[in-house]
Every structure is written in structure tokens, then in C-alpha cells.
């Protein structure tokens, strides 16, 4: 029985780009570290590079390419008209992994700190309460039973009903709408999906139950991989306003630096430079090349990227670095010294100057 379950049950995660794939690598490494006996599967879409797929293949038992529009049923036409639901639908593809009898889906921004194989003793749909609205479950960690029929039901439900939050969590809570009331066995303890901001909402409980925490979930727009890491002191620098616990961020980065970063293909960096892709997908390349940077990881380049991220999220530091005279000075500087033509490089991609 035991051996069968090891083959027939899997942890499943998802990445639609190289940046989220970094999260999958840390999640997968964290599962290996706690000695899971189950299979590891990662779903990827066309947005994940070949090089990154190879990295994933070294860690996961299965790398499955999924495509929203390959579901070969009548929902496809309606789906085409709802591009907003595309990532949501991609997550639902996990129900199609029918080579497994039972699975645990985990978001790419989760981290396992203690073995959670006992989750496979639970039934569909088991999940932990959402910290923001505990009558809903959080869809970052859930136990489910793969089934083409459920997949199709979810699709038609989504197309006809829609989600109340625009994402998979709203949809899944409407679909599995008895979760809150029917069977307490389907309520996973909160320790199986602790939001990284939990200390903020209930510090005494956080301290009391800290040792029981099994899974940490970095919800929100700013993920651990967006933070700067100082290789000299081996510490992560918290970004203001995200609320992620420093301790949890450090855990994520410890695993990233120990198990993931040393194996990252520097080609990720090359491709991000060549394509001048300075948005999120460039992060994977930056991080792949950390060791080559030698020093100054917490220097100008990283500061710049952090700032850009905050800016993109509407968190411009209007009183500080982003105040108008600084922006103007920067513009003036750019106008006065045009970048050499043909270099194809933006400032963020240039190696930082050697420091001390
Ligand atoms: N995801 C992805 N690409 C995206 C957005 C989301 O691959 O652009 C996947 C990834 O597995 C992620 C999950 O969908 O963990 C849910 O999104 P996210 O974790 O960002 O949502 P949150 O937990 O912050 O609500
Ligand atoms: Mn998440």
C-alpha cells in the first residue's frame, strides 16, 4: 500500500513564467528537504523558458505542459472571450493529472517547513481557512482528487457563474460551497497554510503555535523573489509595506541560496539581457547570475529593481528616492549622457561597480 501511494499521490504546483518557476523550485526543494515520499509535479505554460524547464525537470518527477485552450470541449469558445480567467483556468488543469489518485495543490509562493504527507489522508476538497475571510478556504494549498469530469464541471461553472474575486479562490469557494459548513475534516489546520503576515494580525497566537507551522504562504503582489539579498551577510532585506515576516523571508532565501541558486543556468540571465526583458521575468536571470556579481548584490542594481517594483505597484517613495527633484535629476542625466548605441543594455542589466 505504502509504495503504491508514493507513486499515485503527488504534490502539484504551477508556473506561467520563469519568475514563478523560481518559487516552484524553492517549494520543490522544501518538500524534498522535509523528506516527502510522494511525487512532485509542476505544470508549466508556454511562458516558461526551455532552460527553466530543465531546472524544474531536475527536481520534479514530472513537468507537465498545460494550455488553457487544449481542453477540447465547448467551453473553449467562451474561454476565448474571457482572457481575465486564463491563469485561473490554468490552475484548474491540476484536476486533469489523472495519472495520480490524489494530489495536494500548492501555490508557487508557498514553502514547506515540516513534512505534510499526512495531507493525502484527507478528502477532496480539503483546505485551510483564508486569513482574510475564514468562512472561505485559501486556495494556495488544497487536497483534491484528479478527474476530467471535475475539470469540465469547474470550467462550465466558471464560464457561466464567474468568480467573485476574479481568481481561482473565488471560483473554487463557490464550487465547493459546502466547505465552510459540511465536514470539519475538510478544514485543514491553519498551520498548513500560514500567511506570512500572520504575526501581524495575531502575534500571541503566532508565538504560541509557531513550532506547529508546516506551510508558509507569501500571499500578495510582492513575493520573496522580489526582495534583495545580501550575499555577504546572507540576509534578505525586507521591502517596506509588504508585511511578510522577516523570519519567513529568510527561510525562503536560505533554501533558495542553498538548493536553487547554485544550479540556476546563467543562460537565464543571457536571455533576459538579450530580450531586454526588464520586467518580472528578468529576475530569474538576475538571480541566476548572483554568484558572478561577487559583490554589491545589495548595491545599486538591486536597489533599482526594488524601486522599480514598488513603483509599478503604485508604492512610489514620493518623499524619498522617487521625489520629483530626484526623478528630474535622473532624466536630466539621461538626456545629457545618451547611452552608447548598440549595447542593447538597460542600466539594470549592467553589473554593479565593484565595491570596497
Ligand atoms: N501563478 C502563475 N503566474 C502568474 C500568477 C500566478 O504561475 O502570473 C500561479 C502560481 O502558482 C501562484 C498561483 O498561480 O502561486 C496563485 O497566484 P499568487 O500566489 O500570486 O496569488 P496570491 O496567493 O498572492 O493570492
Ligand atoms: Mn499564493
Automatic annotation (TrEMBL):
Q: Which SUPFAM superfamilies does UniProt cross-reference here? A: Nucleotide-diphospho-sugar transferases
Instruction: Tell me the InterPro entries matching this sequence.
Output: Glyco_trans_8 (IPR002495), GNT1/Glycosyltrans_8 (IPR050587), Nucleotide-diphossugar_trans (IPR029044)
Record-listed E.C. numbers: 2.4.1.186
Q: Where is this region: Disordered?
A: 332-356
Which stretches are transmembrane? none
Q: Which leading EC class covers this enzyme?
A: transferase
Pfam families assigned: Glyco_transf_8
Coiled-coil positions are none
Family assignment from sequence similarity:
Belongs to the glycosyltransferase 8 family. Glycogenin subfamily.
State the protein's name: glycogenin glucosyltransferase
Q: Tell me the organism's taxonomic lineage.
A: Eukaryota, Metazoa, Spiralia, Lophotrochozoa, Mollusca
Gene name on record?
A: LOC101848319
Amino acid at each position: 500500500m505504502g509504495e503504491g501511494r508514493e507513486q499515485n499521490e503527488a504534490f502539484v504546483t504551477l508556473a506561467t513564467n520563469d519568475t514563478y518557476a523560481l518559487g516552484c523550485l524553492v517549494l520543490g526543494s522544501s518538500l524534498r528537504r522535509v523528506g516527502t515520499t510522494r511525487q512532485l509535479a509542476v505544470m508549466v505554460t508556454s511562458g516558461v523558458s526551455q532552460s527553466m524547464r530543465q531546472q524544474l525537470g531536475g527536481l520534479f518527477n514530472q513537468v507537465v505542459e498545460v494550455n488553457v485552450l487544449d481542453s477540447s470541449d465547448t467551453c473553449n469558445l467562451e474561454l476565448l472571450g474571457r482572457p481575465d480567467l486564463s491563469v485561473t483556468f490554468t490552475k484548474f488543469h491540476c484536476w486533469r493529472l489523472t495519472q495520480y489518485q490524489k494530489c495536494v495543490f500548492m501555490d508557487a509562493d508557498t514553502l514547506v517547513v515540516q513534512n505534510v504527507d499526512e495531507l493525502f489522508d484527507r478528502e477532496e476538497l480539503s483546505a485551510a481557512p483564508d486569513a482574510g475571510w475564514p468562512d472561505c478556504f485559501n486556495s494556495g494549498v488544497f487536497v483534491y482528487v484528479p478527474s476530467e469530469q471535475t475539470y469540465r464541471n469547474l470550467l462550465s461553472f466558471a464560464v457561466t457563474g464567474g468568480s467573485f474575486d476574479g481568481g481561482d479562490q473565488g471560483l473554487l469557494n463557490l464550487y465547493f460551497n459546502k466547505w465552510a459548513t459540511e465536514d470539519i475534516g475538510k478544514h485543514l489546520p491553519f498551520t498548513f497554510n500560514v500567511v506570512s503576515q500572520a504575526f501581524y494580525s495575531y502575534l500571541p497566537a503566532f508565538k504560541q503555535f509557531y513550532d506547529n507551522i508546516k506551510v508558509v504562504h507569501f500571499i500578495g503582489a510582492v513575493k520573496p523573489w522580489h526582495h534583495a539579498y545580501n550575499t555577504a551577510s546572507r540576509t534578505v532585506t525586507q521591502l517596506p509595506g509588504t508585511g511578510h515576516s522577516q523570519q519567513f523571508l529568510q527561510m525562503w532565501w536560505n533554501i533558495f541560496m542553498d538548493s536553487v541558486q547554485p544550479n540556476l543556468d546563467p543562460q537565464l540571465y543571457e536571455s533576459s539581457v538579450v530580450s531586454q526583458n526588464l520586467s518580472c521575468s528578468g529576475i530569474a536571470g538576475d538571480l541566476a547570475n548572483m554568484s558572478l556579481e561577487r559583490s554589491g548584490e545589495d548595491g545599486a542594481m538591486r536597489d533599482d529593481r526594488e524601486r522599480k517594483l514598488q513603483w509599478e505597484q503604485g508604492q512610489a517613495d514620493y518623499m524619498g528616492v522617487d521625489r520629483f527633484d530626484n526623478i528630474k535629476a535622473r532624466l536630466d542625466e539621461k538626456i545629457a549622457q545618451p547611452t552608447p548605441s548598440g549595447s542593447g543594455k538597460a542600466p539594470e542589466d549592467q553589473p554593479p561597480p565593484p565595491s570596497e
